[in-house]
Amino acid sequence: MGLVRKALLAGSQSRWLRERAVNYRFVRRAVSRFMPGEDLEAALAAARTLQAAGIGSVLTYLGENVQTAEEAEQFTRHYLDVLARAKRASLGAEISIKLTQLGLDLGHAACEAGLMSLIESARADGTWVWIDMESSAYTDATLDIYRRARARFPNVGVCVQAYLRRTEQDLKTLIPLGGGLRLVKGAYREPVDKAFPRKQDVDASYFDLARQLLGREARQAGVRPIFGTHDPALIRRVEAAARVEALRPQDVEFQMLYGIRRDEQARLAGQGHRFRVLISYGDAWFPWYMRRLAERPANMLFLLRNVFTG
Ligand code: FDA
To answer: Is the CB of 289 under 6 A from ligand 1?
Structure first.
C-alpha cells in the first residue's frame, strides 16, 4: 500500500482532522463531485436524473459507528422514510446500509432488529437492502447477521471485499445461500495478514472471485452478483468471463459510485447491462471522502484546485 494512501486512510479516522476539514469551503466544494448534496432531496433528485438516462440507483445515508441506541433508531427511521419516498417517486431505488449505523457496536440484537425491519419494508416495496462491508473487525459479525437476514428474506445482499484473504473461503459458504453478493476491492486500512497489500494481487483476487460469482453454482443457487468497480480493465475481463458463461449483458450487473468514471457508466448502461449508481448523501461525509481520496490520490489535485477557485 502506497504511503499517501496509508496516510489518507489513517486521516479518515482522525477526529482532529475531521473537525477542521469539514469547515473549509474548498473541501466541501471538492466533496460535491462525489455527492449530489447533503440532504435526501438532493439524492432523490440525482436518482431521478439517472433514471431518465436508464440508470438505477442505490441510496446510502453517510454515517458509521453510532454511539447511542437513539442514533441507531434515527438511522433506521431515516431509511424507512427513504424507502417510502423512493417508492412514491417510482424510482425503483435500493438502499445500502452500514451495520455500525444501525448500532452494531452497541450489540447485535437491536442492530439486527433494525435491519430486519428495513428489509421487510423494502420487500413490501419490491426493492432490496444491501449491507456494506466495513473494516475487517466487523466481517464476522456482518456475515453472521447477513446469513440470518438471508434465511428470512429474498431481497438482501452483502458486500464482499476482494482485498481480504478470507473472502475466497467466505464465498464457499455464501454462494450456496443465493441472495445478493456485491464484489468490491475494499476501501479500509487493513494489516497484511488480513488483506493483500499490492494492487495486482487485489485485482487478481477480484477476477477469481468474479468468475465464481458468474459460475454455474452461483447461478443455480440464485445469486444476484454485482460487480462494484470503476476499473475499466477489470470490467472488460468480467464482461469477457460472462460471455464465456454464455450470459447476456442484462444478466450481468455493475454498480459504481456517484460521480466516478461517468464515461464508463454511460458505456455499461448503453450496452444493456443492468447498472446502478450508488448515491451517498448526508453531512457525515468526512471518513467516506477520505476513503475516496485514498482510492485515487490524484483526487488530491482536484481538492487543491478548489482552494484556488473561489
Ligand atoms: P481502483 O481503485 O483500482 O480504480 C480503478 C480506476 O477507477 C481508477 O484508475 C480511476 O480511474 C477510477 N477510480 C476509482 N476510484 C476513484 C475515485 N475515488 N475517484 C476517481 N476515480 C476513481 N468498499 C468497501 O470496503 N465496502 C463496501 O461496502 C463498498 N461498497 C461499494 C459499493 C459500490 C457500488 C462501489 C462501486 C464501491 C464500493 N466500495 C466499498 C469501494 C471499493 O472497495 C473501492 O474502494 C472503490 O470501488 C475503488 O476501487 P475500484 O474497484 O474502482 O478500483
So the answer is: no
